[in-house]
Specification:
This protein has 14 helices and twelve strands. A hairpin with a 4-residue loop joins strand 9 and strand 10. By secondary structure, the protein is of the alpha/beta class. Helix content is about 40%, strand content about 20%. Helix 5 crosses helix 6 and helix 6 packs across helix 8. The protein has two domains: about 200 residues, inorganic pyrophosphatase (n-terminal core); about 120 residues, Diaminopimelate Epimerase, Chain A, domain 1, CATH 3.10.310.
Length: about 350
């Protein structure tokens, strides 16, 4: 985002506006953290800000400051459509294609509100007037911090904003262990703690709230773990029947794919989750080093994301999806060789 864009946004936000902030469908910690962080910041400048999420999100995110104010488009469509139609400004956070917001896509695309994108995913679409897009960033929350800094307003960051931004940076960096974590990331985290983010409490709220059923589901997932040693690949499957058996709730499979990636010698991991409601197989992909799961997902599973973390889907059944996955591995033999 260049200096002219920043100056234009400063002018745009210099008086109270009707603003809608949108995360992607099935929002995660970075999506909810960034939207809430920006929401609290805009409220400090007397803007009429509203977050509209395409759908619900895991319960372990529902402790966050301001979370109760978030509208869910799939259950509050009428109210949401009015807000989108009358919005002066629409911020889209943690996604760069309107296809990532499900049933909201048409309402957002046709809104006359000025669109501002803040996102760290690769290959952005050109739908926003102002784009802050940087795939080298650890998280959208880190970018929201930078955005506030560009507006010379870091002094406005309070404990609520700091806590929300901390959540997204921590979750999208795998608790600060991914390659995208830089010295600048740690510097920002230090500032957020100084501003009131309680790091230990936030970690507990996110990760120490397991139900008995979720741990049982994790056990089943790990028992389903398979390894393809010649391609340094591991994958996990979960059927709809298995999800039902362990009373699956949104968010229960979060992070399970990382167990497969943690295996010694493995550089590519995947989890395949059957979803009868959407009639798809949901796919999460992770990698180490330079192997791009973003490129693989875009090429074969209608998805995308980052070099080392991406998502996708399959319209085939679970068994056929696994067969397809295994069949494409030879195409990446050089990248996956020991």
């Amino acid at each position: 985002m260049n200096k002219d864009d920043i100056n234009s946004i400063k002018a745009l936000l210099s008086s109270p506006k009707a603003i809608v902030i949108i995360p992607h469908k099935n929002p995660d910690g970075d999506a909810i953290g960034s939207t809430l962080g920006l929401y609290h910041y805009l409220k400090k400048h007397n803007h009429k800000a509203t977050i509209i999420a395409p759908n619900d999100y895991p319960v372990f995110l529902k402790w966050m400051p301001g979370e109760a104010s978030i509208l869910k488009y799939d259950h509050q469509k009428k109210e949401s459509d009015v807000l989108l139609k009358t919005a002066d400004v629409i911020f889209t956070l943690d996604f760069n294609s309107l296809g990532r917001i499900g049933g909201m896509e048409d309402a957002v695309a046709t809104s006359e509100g000025i669109k501002i994108m803040i996102d760290h995913h690769q290959q952005p679409d050109d739908y926003a007037k102002y784009m802050y897009s940087d795939a080298t960033m650890s998280s959208t929350c880190e970018m929201v911090y930078n955005f506030i800094e560009m507006l010379n307003d870091v002094n406005k960051i309070d404990s609520d904003i700091a806590s929300c931004l901390y959540v997204g940076i921590m979750t999208d960096t795998g608790s600060f262990r991914y390659q995208s974590t830089t010295s600048a990331t740690h510097h920002i985290i230090g500032n957020l703690i100084e501003k009131g983010a309680r790091n230990s409490e936030i970690h507990n709220n996110l990760y120490d709230t397991n139900s008995y059923e979720r741990l049982q589901l994790l056990g089943r997932a790990l028992s389903n773990l398979k390894v393809v040693p010649e391609y340094r690949t591991a994958y996990i499957t979960l059927s709809q029947e298995e999800l039902n058996t362990f009373k699956f709730k949104k968010g229960d499979t979060e992070g399970i794919v990382n167990y497969a990636l943690s295996l010694k010698g493995i550089i590519f991991a995947a989890i395949f989750i059957e979803n009868h409601q959407e009639n798809i197989i949901k796919i999460s992909l992770r990698s180490k080093g330079d192997f791009s799961v973003n490129e693989l997902s875009r090429a074969h599973f209608s998805g995308g994301g980052h070099t080392n973390a991406a998502g996708g889907k399959s319209d085939l059944n679970l068994s056929d999806t696994i067969d397809k996955f295994i069949s494409i591995l030879p195409q990446y033999k050089q990248d996956l060789k020991a």
